[in-house]
Amino acid sequence: LQAEGFKEQGNAFYIKKDYSEAFNYYTKAIDACPKNASYYSNRAATLMMLCRFREALEDSQQAVRLDDCFMKGHLREGKCHLSLGNAMAAKLVFNVFQHKNAAAVQEYERMAEFGFEKRDFRKVVYCMDRALALASACHRFKILKAECLALLGRYPEAQSVASDILRMDPTNADALYVQGLCLYYEDCIDKAVQFFVQALRMAPDHEKARLACRNAKALKAKKEEGNQAFKDCNYEAAYQLYTEALKIDPNNIKTNAKLYCNRGTVGAKLKKLDQAIEDCTSAVKLDETYIKAYLRRAQCYMDLEQYEEAVRDYETVYQTEKTKEHKHLLKNAQLELKKSKRKDYYKVLGVGKNATDDEIKKAYRKRALMHHPDRHSAATPEVQKEEEKKFKEVGEAFTVLSDPKKKVRYDNGHDLEDDGGFGGGGNNVFDLTQGPHAAPASFLCGPPPSYNKNVIFLQTFSLSIIHFYH
After folding, report:
1. How far apart are the C-alpha atoms of 407 and 364, rounded to whole Å?
2. Bridge-partner residues for 438, per DSSP?
3. How many other CB atoms sit within 10 Å of the CB of residue 293?
4. What is residue 462's predicted lDDT score, i.e. its pLDDT?
5. SS3 state of residue 470
6. pLDDT by 10-residue block (mean), the chain, 470 residues
7. What does 226-283 look like in DSSP terms, one character per residue?
8. From which residue to which does the signal peptide run (predicted)?
9. Alpha carbon of 152 to those of 173, 182, 251: distances in Å?
């Protein structure tokens, strides 16, 4: 890393034509890493600019000794010989250089073909760059590089290469195919088909363009069928159609991300929430910037009461797009997460969050009878302690859910803003059991005017339980 740093500084001075400073930094790079051919070649170039050709020749020869395939080293060696009047030596080097160039181009082409078969597209791009450095006008190499850039998702670079070729040769079917391929993978399917058709017009036997055109048309048709089925509320059919669309071309990342998200939306409609989450996860794996997929997955997590996961997704969305809507969704998920960590009074009573007053009362009667300590007087001390705890929770839950104001605050999470929540103070059914089973004096003398009817019911029912067991 230090040697590369010196080299970069040397390059900067070379560009500024400060060759003395460039020489100093290339020397530092060599001292740090003496086995790197390019450092010697760079210093040789600097020495040539300083007209120090004998030293430049030595550096060029050292570069070639370290890497016999390093073409710049051979070229600079030949130029140094020529500058020093060594015509025969220069001719010999240039002959070797040309021979090695041809051999190198063949080798890079062979490696690129092997890499393409193995779908190692980065290796193909690397090999084509090396080959083009020696055969800069070869359209075949440029097309192969552009196609692999498209397959790597580097669409602007691929389009730039294809456009350069089309400027010189507007009828080049391979370049038209690459342009279409980029548009196809960017989910601009209609425009892509136009390029594929044009490529086939120029070369009717262009198999890659034919296959891509067929896939593009099939993908568009199947996706539109799925969308229509969804609009018609035929969710089972939509799910199947999106599944079929996903099988058409695994390489089309952007379109497949949308298809996974669409299928996730359908899955949510079909109450297949786990499957919907899996599909949305597949979508964001393909496209990490896909906001819609994060939002859909977050909503599924909310529906499953997996609030930590929902908060994480909404945070990702809000960090990407800081809108009021996204902020509201995040705040709501954070509130639900806090609420989920407190005692769930609805679960304590075994009722839904939309339960009526009568349903809450009935549930309270049932649970209070079930967990009343006197019902478990013959149980072990551990069981008695657990049942007493549950009995108190039942009373606490009823105290909150039977009071309209407390219930609203509880439902909205406002109790989380209080230090003590709803615990302690207020109307507490457990004041009914002072001593063995005595009712509090306040109840025996009649409830104060401020008591609401549900608290009176709670106290009355608790006393009825006491009399039931005694």
Report:
1. 15
2. 434
3. 28
4. 52
5. coil
6. 91 95 96 94 96 95 89 89 88 81 85 95 95 85 96 95 93 96 95 96 96 96 97 97 96 95 97 96 96 97 95 96 95 89 86 90 90 87 89 89 87 62 45 38 36 48 46
7. HHHHHHTT-HHHHHHHHHHHHTT-TT-HHHHHHHHHHHHHHHHHTT-HHHHHHHHHHH
8. none
9. 21, 10, 10
Helix axes 291-303, 273-286, angle to 10 degrees: 160
On whether the CB atoms of residues 60 and 76 are closer than 8 A, the answer is yes
d(CA 272, CA 383): 39
- CB contact at 8 A, 276 and 264: yes
DSSP 165-195: HHHH-TT-HHHHHHHHHHHHHTT-HHHHHHH
User: How far, in Å, CA of 219 to CA of 217, rounded?
Assistant: 5
Q: Whole-angstrom Cα distance, residue 379 to residue 377?
A: 6
CA torsion angle for 423, 461, 366, 350 (degrees, to 10)?
A: -30
User: How far is residue 393's CA from residue 428's CA, in Å, rounded to a whole number?
Assistant: 11
Cβ atoms of 449 and 356 within 8 Å: the answer is: no
Q: CB pairs under 8 A, 24+ apart, for 3-8?
A: 3/28, 3/29, 3/32, 3/33, 3/36, 3/39, 4/29, 6/32, 7/38, 7/39, 7/42
Report yes or no: 459 and 434 within 8 Å, Cβ to Cβ.
Answer: no
Please state, in angstroms and rounded to a whole number, the distance separating the CA atoms of residues 87 and 111: 35
Question: Using CA atoms, how far apart are residues 243 and 241, in angstroms rounded to an integer?
Answer: 5
Q: What is the pLDDT of residue 201?
A: 96
What is the pTM for the complete model shown? 0.64
Domains of the chain: 2-203 (1.25.40.10), 216-341 (1.25.40.10), 345-469 (1.10.287.110)
pLDDT computed for residue 218 by the predictor: 96
Q: For 329-332, which contacts have Cβ atoms below 8 Å and span 24 or more sequence positions?
A: 329/295, 329/298
Q: How far apart are CA 17 and CA 11, in angstroms?
A: 10
3-state helix, strand, coil in the chain (%, to 5): 75, 0, 20
How far apart CA 278 and CA 282 sit, in angstroms, is 6
Contact 461, 453 (CB under 8 A): no
Instruction: Output the CA–CA distances (angstroms, integers) from residue 253 to 248, 259, 319, 385, in the order listed.
Output: 12, 10, 24, 58
Q: Token digits for 244?
A: 């079929």
**Which two three-digit tokens encode residue 293?**
């997929």
Helices (H) and strands (E) in the chain, counts: 24, 0
Q: What would the two tokens of residue 108 be?
A: 């890079």
Distance CA 81, CA 91 (A): 9
